[in-house]
Amino acid sequence: MGLDMYLRAEKNLYGYDFYGPERKAEYTALIEYLGVADFADSETPSANIGFTVAYWRKANHIHRWFVDYVQGGVDECRPHYVSREQLTELRAVCDQILQLKTTTAKTTITVFDGQGAPKEEVRKGPALTGTAKAAAEELLPTQSGFFFGGTEYDEWYLRDVEYTFQRISQVLKLGEEWSFEYQSSW
């Protein structure tokens, strides 16, 4: 239960002669690999493949960015097309925040021992403080919500930013024939 987020890549494959032998071979190889050559309609040789290229759990700041810049401010649990330009913008925002990560802060959290009794634990790790935190609040603000995760600018926030930067950098290496969509579930 909580905020789950997915970025998917999709590609259409066609086996029509007018797309050329390379595209036809790609389509044929796919349907043969999947064992569906006997079921595919030869009059309309087409297929769509897609897969998840990034997954986040309770990364509410990343979700908020997608809602604001991809979904037109409407927070709903349905797929939304994401352009390469939008992914490039999000990667640039993440890069800016990662450049701010220069401080180490102590964070006090409540943990539970083996008997279920709460106790405070102090952790030391990367965090954003002062002007770096203010810049992150402006560039990629957190968002509270029902089971949306924490709203601190701590190591978890930075892990999600780093993961997002790395995944988008990799995803953008896919060819121009790939399209992308974002969907959340909560």
What is the oligomeric state here? Answer: single chain
Whole-number average pLDDT?
90
Q: Strand order across the biggest sheet?
A: 2-1-6-3
Number of strands: 6
| Measured distance between first and last alpha carbons | 7 Å
Order of helices and strands: EHEHEHEEHHE
How many helices? The count is 5
Question: How would you describe this structure to a colleague?
Answer:
This protein is α+β, with helices and mostly antiparallel strands and 186 residues long. It is built from five helices and six strands; from the N terminus they run E-H-E-H-E-H-E-E-H-H-E. The longest helix has 17 residues, at 84-100. It is elongated, with a radius of gyration of 21 Å.
How would you summarize the topology of this molecule?
Blueprint: E1 4-14, H1 21-33, E2 46-57, H2 60-69, E3 80-82, H3 84-100, E4 103-112, E5 118-127, H4 130-139, H5 155-171, E6 179-185
Antiparallel strand pairs: 1-2, 1-6, 3-6, 4-5
Helix pairs in contact: 3-4, 3-5
Task: Give structural attributes.
single chain; 186 residues; alpha+beta; four-stranded antiparallel β-sheet; two-stranded antiparallel ribbon; 5 helices; 28% strand; elongated
In short:
With 186 residues, the chain is of the alpha+beta class. 36% of the residues lie in helices and 28% in strands. The protein has helices spanning 21-33, 60-69, 84-100, 130-139, 155-171, and strands spanning 4-14, 46-57, 80-82, 103-112, 118-127, 179-185.
